[in-house]
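User: For my dataset I need records formatted as: sequence, then structure tokens, nothing else. Please produce one.
Assistant:
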Amino acid sequence: MPRPLLAVFVMTLGLPFLILLAIVSSASGVSASVFTSALGLVVMSIFLMLVVYEIKRIADLPPDSH
């Protein structure tokens, strides 16, 4: 998957989730730690996904270009 397509995919799914989480967490019954935990989970998931795609890209290179 090309990187620009991956970036659009992450923004398309990640930003609405964060906006929804911010709206929900602004309600009186939700603590701020829920927002920070979810944000950390999203950032870590994006980082791990990019690491996996980069390893796959390097593994798919021809052997003489490593």
